[in-house]
Amino acid sequence: MAKLKPQKLTGGVDSEGETMKPLTNPGVVMGTVGYESPEQVRGETVDHRSDLFSFGLILFEMLCGERAFHRETMAETMTAILKEDPPELSETNDKISPQLEKIVRRCLEKKPERRFHSAHDLGFALESLSASSTTSGKNLTTSRFSNYRRNCETEACKFANAFGRIRCC
Fold this sequence. Notes:
Elements lengths: L11 E2 L5 E2 L17 H4 L6 H17 L9 H10 L5 H4 L5 H10 L11 H18 L7 H25 L1
Antiparallel strand pairs: 1-2
């Protein structure tokens, strides 16, 4: 069985201390349309915060079942990523907690410096959310919707924590 070795797309130093050649170049737009950060769409140099934006897009889609910036054409989708805010999560799923929505929106900030600084910081925010929903969960009714909300948030937290562990290694 072949061994897979994770690679950092923006270049850097691998686990053996070897300098890695970047797999992407500034000015080259590369990625799946609809999951790119604004800086990727513009063909700018990207760093780990671009991954946090893309993660926010996946988290958004997991929570409401639709893409944050889906449009009819690739050009319209790319323009939406650059210029529009995603819909409020509560518009499509009113069971999403305001705290989780705030975390997702921070991932989807247009300016990289306004996003989480690291996957570790994002993981910490989600762990805090998970811990608070566990303690406050005793006060929730056991309706189908409250269970659904807790399950969404729990699964989102697990996914984010796995992402954080992978990216922080």
